[in-house]
Amino acid sequence: MEYTGRIIKGVGSFYTLLTDDGEFVCKARGRFRKEGITPVPGDYCRFETDGGKGYITEILTRKNLLIRPAAANIDKLMIVLSSSLPRPDYCLADKLMMQCELSGIIPVILLNKCDEMERETYEATLAQYKDTGYCIIPVSAHNGTGIDRLKAEIAGSTCCFAGQSAVGKSSLMNALAPGLELPVGQLSDKIDRGRHTTRHAQLWQVCGGCMLDTPGFSLLDMAEIDPAKLSLLYPEMRPHLDNCRFSECLHMTEPDCGVKPFIGNGISPERYERYCKFAEELKEKRKHRYD
Prior knowledge:
- This protein has 6 helices and 13 strands.
- By secondary structure, it is of the alpha/beta class.
- It has a 6-stranded mixed beta sheet, with helices on both faces.
- The radius of gyration is 21 Å and the shape is globular.
C-alpha cells in the first residue's frame, strides 16, 4: 500500500514518517544512495509498506534544504542567541541569516536567557541586528518571557531552531511544549561552551505548526557565493546598493560607495566588519577554485 507522509525523525537508516493514519518507520530505497540523495526531517515523501516493512519510494519537491542542520521545507529559522553564556557567536548567526536569504527562509532572532541577561551582551546583540528588519524576540525558558509571542510565530509554520550548543534551544522547546521533556545540556565550566544534548534532528507538531530541534553546532561552512552578490544577503544594505558608482561594488575600498556612509547609522559597524571578513574569504575561495 502506498502512503504520503512527512519525515519527523531519522536515526541511522530508519526514518519515521507522520501521516493521517499515524506514524510509520521506513528505510530509503537503495537508489537514493546511488543518486546521492539523503532523506531529511521535514521532507514530504511517498512510501510503500509490504509485509510490515516500509520503504520510501519518492521524495517530493523540496521548498528548500538546509545542510547543517539537515532539514527540508523550513518556513522560519529561529536563530537562538544567549544574552549571557555562552557568548554569542555572531559569525555563525550572520551565516545562518545568509542561508535564510539564499533559501527563502524567514529568520527570527531569539535573545534567550533574558532572565539572567548580561546587559552589555544583550544590548550589543540588539544593536547589531535591529537594522536588519528581522523579528527579534527576547525570550526566557525559565520565566516565560516572550513564549506567547514565540508561539504566535510558530503557528502555521515549520520552524527550525538553530544556534550554538547550550544557548537554550531545547529549554525553549520544552517551554513551548512541556510534554516533550527534551534533555537540556549544561555549560562546560572550563571553556563556557555547551555540551551537545540533541543527538538527531526531530520534527514536533506544536503551537499550531511544526518545530524542529537540531544537534548543536559551532561552525557553518560558507556557501559558494559571488563576493559581488554578498551584500544582497544583507537587508540593511540593500536599499543603498543602487547608489554605488560601480555595479559590482564590494563596499570595502571602492570610491563613491552608496553603503559605507550608512555604517553606524542604519548599518551595524560590527556586522559590517564581519561582512568584510566574509567578502575577503569568498574572494580567496574564488581565486583558488580551479587550483
